[in-house]
Amino acid sequence: MTSDATPRVRLSAITKSFLGVPVLHGVDLDLRGGEVHAVMGENGAGKSTLLKVLAGVHRPDSGTIEVDGEAASFAGPTDAQRAGIAIIHQEFTLLPHRSVAENVYLGREPVRRMQVDRRRMVADTRKLLDWLGEDGIDPTDAVSSLSVAQRQVVEIVKALSTDARVLGMDEPTAALADHEVELLYDLVRRLRERGIAILYVSHRMREVFDLSDRITVLKDGRFVTCAPTGELTPDDLVRHMVGRELGDYYPDRAAPEDFGRVRLALRDAGNARVRDLNLEVRAGEIVGLAGLQGSGRSALARAVFGVEPFTTGRMEVDGAAQRVTRPRTAVRLGIALVTEDRKGDGLALRQSVRDNTLLVRRAALRGPRSRARHDVPSLLDLVTVVARGEHQEVRFLSGGNQQKVVLAKWLAVEPRVLLVDEPTRGIDVGAKRAVHELLRDLAKRGVAVLMISSELPELIGMSDRILVMHAGALAGELPAGASEGDVMALATGHRAGAAA
Amino acid sequence: MTWRPRLAEGTAPVLVVLLLLLVGLAIVGPAYDEPSGYLALLKRAAPLMILAIGQYFVIVSGGFDLSVGALVTAGVVIAARLIDGDESATTPVILLVLGFGVLVGLLNGLITTKLLVPSFIVTLGMLLVLDGATFLWTDGAPRGALSAGFRTFGRGALDVPLLGEIPWSVLILLAILVAAALFMRSGTGRALVAAGDNEAAVRMSGGQVDRLRLLGFVLSGLLAAVAAILLGGFAGVSAQVGSGLEFRAITAVVLGGVLLGGGRGSVVAAAAGALSLEALFTLLNLLGVSGALESAVQGLIIIAAVAYASLGGGLRQRLRLRPKQCNTVQPAPS
């Protein structure tokens, strides 16, 4: 480990709120040349926000940034870039039909006699590729001909071409196949040897222990600890990441004798994103589905719902094998999916509360079932939507009320299996409690509920049992009231296959 | 739930514009002192209003139909050539023209939804194909003649008890308008608008977005064929009868406050937009403004109407007014 005395970048007491919701409270972080500094935390702990503060995307509300020991202030990403800080984002920003060199110098092309100096662009790109020891990529290759891992190299070369000495990487392995991860490790190590300071944001335990020199843990936007990697065990890390009280109120769980027949069953089901799934959800039961982002939780729900159907194995609804290849089939079988992105694919925002409430019934059903069986007002009462009237457009409702409208549109078709993905994301405490009570109430009436949530207290508080996913497969099952540490241990792949 | 009249968002301005134009006509034109003057206006406007209703179905579900003008020309030219004055051919040829409209709409819709070509391009291509085919078939000068029976729909009138003579075209228009308004209140109609607003939400609710869009194009094609039958009778046979009508229909729909890109607007307002446009041209004509300015006026309207729609939203956002954020009233005791 070759560390300079003065850190390349030091962030002190950084505070940031969005719309009055604090996301970071007084977070400290320093990055030294030639080190890989990992930042860990649960979803929503503030990792990405911290990275964006470093990148100049967000301005901190308070706190200081120092670069090479001197105070700095970034009005925007360009300022951060000028200070030698570059970020590799999760989504790639390359233009597929242009060459590697053109992408690296996009918008900053070297000019000679009023013409783009292609020769120099290619030569400089080649120099950087050589410096990194990447001889498999030619500067004149089209980006579309490169693998995902190679594109990541191009992103990094692009960052280095701005003379970056601090590199932030946001979940760099998320898009990579297993064998490509090793290549990335190599690359990161080479960058470190060449004196670059690397901020490595990840929630994969193994990577962090394989690669990093120091680890900073954030929880709920607060700094928890920063320690050399060698002084931490995975168990310590999990404890630091979760250690939080479970004080909220949740409705009473069901008694095991209340569970009815198996409504949804998967037998060795899988597709490109998930594999070997075996699970059962019974009538009356709320089963929690835990896992980190990208672990396949949402992919499982989308597969059951026919958005990205299972390609292997079997799926049974109320005991009968079913092939569900599109949402319409799922809806007609009595499966409902409350997606995690209610504005993206849950609601038609310019339509009224009534039109959204009736959307599923009208869109998916035919004949008498498509007509009103309950009327809209009683549905809205059931979910306690507060709106000016049925004709109000849903975009003017608060997030909590929008979510209740999403639930109402599904209740309108009386589902047997209800999949909910992040049902309380971004809604206030009162609405959260209402959603929790509604889910429990539906379970009592014989619906099988599969609930995905990144909020562990919620997941643990609500679930009759918890399934944990890791890397596209089920990592284990935990009973009601399991600890957050148990869940995180399975979710991060630190502990595999715990017994129920 | 008690029913009370309610205007869809963006509908009010066109009604104000229409009222002002009608008042303007009453002041300027002596013919507009009596109902017959307005009836004549409505008769003239009927084909455009019907086209606007068809265009509405496509626009509100998130597309464009540029082929309707060429479809009108093709319909008239085909009818004239096939009937060629033969009265007995009237009914089969009318059915054929309607079928042709449905076929063109079907093609537009299938290419848009299955081959994923933007509807703007598909229908532009269809416009060119239809224009070219019509020209090829007629050598530029339409042959044949329409039968008297065919022309009745465009120029004839029905003696309605108590009301007197009502033009066929007005009766047809009213029937279509009522049917369209009822359709837009139905589940399928609401789903059509929702598909224009958020395709993903409709799909994830189990809806068939492609079929809804296809339906929009088919209705647009069918109504263009109806407009062709009325225009053939009203204006006669020429190779220019439908030219430019697609833009006029789009202008009318936009003037009616229907959001380009889909998701909002009422079909009655779209028809009111078409009537306003016709009233405006009549008024300009009465004021002695050259007819050559019509397309310029139309261009200004389409820009102004879209600017109004987006400026409205933008301004509201900038002023942070959010006029309808109001989450304090409980709808009913639970």
UniProtKB/TrEMBL annotation, chain A:
Bilayer disposition of the protein: Peripheral membrane protein
The record's subcellular locations are:
Cell membrane
Q: Which InterPro entries does its entry note?
A: AAA+_ATPase (IPR003593), ABC_carbohydrate_import_ATPase (IPR050107), ABC_transporter-like_ATP-bd (IPR003439), ABC_transporter-like_CS (IPR017871), P-loop_NTPase (IPR027417)
Q: What is its main location?
A: membrane
Domain spans labelled ABC transporter: 9-245, 254-496
Q: SMART domains, from UniProt?
A: AAA
Q: Which organism is it from?
A: Micromonospora musae
Q: Which GO terms describe its cellular component?
A: plasma membrane
Question: What GO terms are given for molecular function?
Answer: ATP binding; ATP hydrolysis activity
What is the protein named?
A: Sugar ABC transporter ATP-binding protein
Q: According to the lineage, what is the superkingdom? A: Bacteria
Annotated membrane-spanning segments are none
List the keywords (alphabetical): ATP-binding, Cell membrane, Membrane, Nucleotide-binding, Repeat, Sugar transport, Translocase, Transport
Automatic annotation (TrEMBL), chain B:
CC per GO annotation: plasma membrane
Q: Which UniProt keywords apply?
A: Cell membrane, Membrane, Transmembrane, Transmembrane helix
Q: How does it sit in the membrane?
A: Multi-pass membrane protein
| Transmembrane region(s) | 12-32, 89-108, 115-137, 166-184, 214-235, 241-260, 267-289, 295-315
UniProt GO molecular function:
transmembrane transporter activity
- Record's subcellular location: Cell membrane
Q: Which is one Pfam family of this protein?
A: BPD_transp_2
Full protein name: ABC transporter permease
Phylogenetic placement of the source organism: Bacteria, Bacillati, Actinomycetota, Actinomycetes, Micromonosporales
